[in-house]
Amino acid sequence: MSAPAQTLRAAVLGAGLGGIAAALRLAAMGMQVTLVERHQDLGGRARVRSVDGYQFDLGPTVITAPELLDELYALFELKREDHLPLVPVEPWYQHN
């Protein structure tokens, strides 16, 4: 009699965009994933902070490679645009 298959487990430290992406990829491979973040909210440097009804971006506000998000959604047979519509910004930066 063979031993039952054991689910591999992984811990990802940091729930910034990279940590979230790593956790999703590991989960798509069938692993049981624990995502650990020291802040109350997710996003790392892409977090938003609310103060007195105002929102402040704590990091990047432009996604320059949306195809990477599409890859993550595809791992779960989902379409990114069904859950996260993106709005093109033109120009997306200006240098003076």
Question: How do you describe this structure in short?
Answer:
The protein is of the alpha+beta class and 96 residues long.
Verbal overview:
The protein has 96 residues and is an alpha+beta fold. Strands 1-2 form a two-stranded parallel sheet. A two-stranded antiparallel ribbon has the order 3-4. The chain has one domain (9-83): FAD/NAD(P)-binding domain. It contains 3 helices and 4 strands; from the N terminus they run E-H-E-E-E-H-H. The chain starts with 8 loop residues before the first strand and ends in a 13-residue tail after the last helix.
Question: What order do the helices and strands come in, and which of them pair?
Answer:
Blueprint: E1 9-13, H1 17-28, E2 32-36, E3 48-51, E4 54-57, H2 66-74, H3 80-83
Parallel strand pairs: 1-2
Antiparallel strand pairs: 3-4
